[in-house]
Amino acid sequence: HSSTQPSDTAGVTASPSTVSTPRGQSQKRTVKDFTFGRILGEGSYSTVMLGTEKSAGTEFAVKILDKRHIIKEKKTKYVNIEKTTLSRLSHPFIVRLHYAFQDPGSLYFVLDLARNGELLSLIRRLQRLPEDGARFYLAEIVTAVEYLHHKGVIHRDLKPENILLDENMHIKLTDFGTAKLVDESNVASTSPQRSQSFVGTAEYVSPELLTDKTVDKSSDLWALGCILYQLLAGQPPFKGPNEYLTFQKILRLEYSMPDHFSPQARDLVSRLLVLGPSERLGAGESDLSAIKRHPFFRDINWDNLHEQTPPNLI
Ligand code: ADE
Question: From ligand 1's centre to the CA of 78, what distance in Å?
């Protein structure tokens, strides 16, 4: 007998109420395992609440989806996409799905808690980020998107609202309800996928989605250009008084950069905000190394971003 094996007599002799039952794969959590706190976010089909798992006191963000509403609005496909996509992913810059369960009325996704909220709120609070801050956060976003694409996932709705900040001010990418899984033969992004219906948010939508309803990995590259612009300027590059006029600006590539953008930032923005998807920096390649090698990122160490202290944003 090996002394390293746990003794199985302890559970037999101790009173059952003092012995915690090991939670095997078969034992699903239920809503009763959590206490719920404040609302962290609200979407059209879901509410995200702070949830504390009673047994260990661990805090999570619990996304609660109303089944009746989802079925009535025919959104079951998107809910399934979110769950299967998140289950495939494991990366420090992407919100982890710890587990999912349901009761007769709702679905529950138990997610990493990102304590510092949305990148959008940070941009608004600071008006805009200093260039070092923008560089660091775009580097983290590029790292997350490179991982996604490597896993065959196109996010399709990248924007500062879907980029959350954890307790150490590192990013956690979220909201995979509109993601697309490209089959593995297509990981190098050769043939664009035709999508059924409009997805995404007006200001970050790529021109190809507007003209021929196609989306591929390079549509996420367009969004990276929009996000870099917004980090530095405080506003997205294309913003009209309504969706129609925003779309017109996108299709005409009608934007201008403020004077304070450095030459390197200007160059990177202009190489990502390109109407032809295949002409964008990094398009058609198996990774985003072309973006990572751009002079804007010269001082970035790509190997350990997660271990770095984010720059001061004052
Ligand atoms: N709001 C939406 N999702 C969230 C999360 N995972 N953490 C914190 N706030 C959120």
Answer: 18
72: which residues sit within 8 A by CB, 6+ positions away?
none
Do 193 and 182 contact (CB within 8 A), yes or no? yes
pLDDT digits (tens, 9 = 90+) for 20-45: 567 766 678 999 999 999 999 998 88
Residues 6+ apart with CB under 8 A from 34: 51, 52, 53, 54, 60, 62
Taking phi over 0 as left and psi of -120 to 50 as alpha, with beta for the rest, 261 belongs to beta
Per DSSP, 192 falls in state P
| Backbone φ and ψ of 40, nearest 5° | -95, -25
Q: What is the pTM of this model?
A: 0.90
Cβ distance 172 to 93 under 8 Å?
A: yes
Q: Are 193 and 257 contacting, i.e. CB atoms less than 8 angstroms apart?
A: no
Residues 48 and 39: beta-carbon distance below 8 Å: yes
Pocket of ligand 1 (CB under 6 A): 40-41, 48, 61, 95, 111-114, 164, 174
Ligand 1 centroid, distance to 192 Cα (angstroms):
31
| Mean of per-residue pLDDT scores for the chain | 90
Calpha distance 173→63 (Å, rounded): 15
Q: How many CB atoms within 10 Å of residue 274?
A: 18
239 annotated ligand binder: no
Is 157 catalytic? The answer is yes
Check: CB of residue 108 under 8 Å from CB of residue 31: yes
For residue 309, what is the DSSP state? Answer: P
Q: Report the first-to-last Cα separation within the chain, whole angstroms.
A: 62
Query: What does the block give as tokens for 52?
Result: 């504390």
SS3 107: strand
Say if CB 283 and CB 217 are below 8 A apart.
yes
Complex confidence, ipTM:
0.97
